[in-house]
Design brief:
single chain; 256 residues; 0% strand; mainly alpha
Length: 256
């Protein structure tokens, strides 16, 4: 897990050389986190509407429904704008950078930047989801944190092995050794999918815990539904992190 943090920090320092650019990068990451919270809040609002629609007044119901659609639209618009602005930000940051990058490695620098922001944004979203879990059920949140730490430890091992493999491919290319696409691409895809499989198994375990806590009335019905949506989001985040880490390893070694 430490090697992942080390490589991400190195990429931030290398790609974004000014303090201003690093603050903008932080802003983009935080916006992504806010969007993830908003999506969970939308889910919570939706379950409240379904759960209490028969007991609340017509006026309150209309206000909640309007709020739901507005909130949903804002989150989708924010997600779109954040992704579009990211490209302009990269171009501006690279022009301001004093680093002399060969033309052959320019594309890899862009790939590295995209994967860096993708991983940082997803990790931040994951952190916010974990905090949201704690708000809904501290018992479930404690178990979830232990599972998350175990997953990241495993991802660190996969990432370290992938860095070694990708560096081997770079050396082989310089030595004009032939390595088939099936080997080069297959190595990266296999590692990423192993990570996805591990996160899927972890989700099944956490779903079992969630069902048990709901069965013993440790969590309300509405919160159980929101936690289920949150688990799906968390699993999606882990799948994204796993595959992005392997692409990051490829971009990192080819941009050295």
């Amino acid at each position: 897990m430490r090697i992942v943090a080390k490589e991400l920090l190195y990429a931030v320092k290398t790609l974004f050389t000014t303090t201003k650019d690093r603050f903008v990068l932080l802003g983009l990451v935080l916006i992504a986190a806010i969007i993830s919270v908003s999506e969970l809040a939308v889910a919570k609002l939706f379950t409240d509407i379904i759960d209490f629609e028969k007991s609340m007044s017509k006026t309150n119901l209309i206000i909640l429904i309007i709020g739901f659609f507005l909130f949903f639209g804002i989150t989708k618009a924010g997600h779109f704008l954040q992704r579009v602005y990211k490209v302009r930000f990269f171009e501006k940051a690279f022009k301001e950078s004093s680093a002399d990058v060969p033309a052959a490695k320019e594309n890899w620098r862009w790939s590295l930047a995209f994967e860096l922001t993708n991983i940082l944004s997803t990790c931040t979203q994951l952190g916010v989801v974990i905090l949201f879990f704690a708000y809904l059920s501290w018992q479930f949140a404690v178990i979830n944190v232990l599972v998350v730490l175990a997953i990241f430890q495993f991802y660190g091992m996969l990432f370290s092995n992938q860095l070694d493999a990708q560096r081997g491919f770079v050396i082989a290319r310089k030595n004009k050794e032939q390595i088939t696409n099936a080997v080069r691409i297959g190595t990266r895809v296999k590692s990423g999918e192993i990570g996805v499989l591990i996160s899927g198994i972890a989700m099944l375990i956490l779903l079992g815990v969630l069902i048990y806590l709901s069965y013993i009335d440790g969590i309300s019905t509405s919160n159980t539904i929101v936690l289920f949506f949150g688990l799906k989001m968390q699993n999606s985040n882990f799948s994204n992190i796993s595959t992005a880490l392997m692409r990051f390893a490829r971009a990192r070694t080819n941009s050295e």
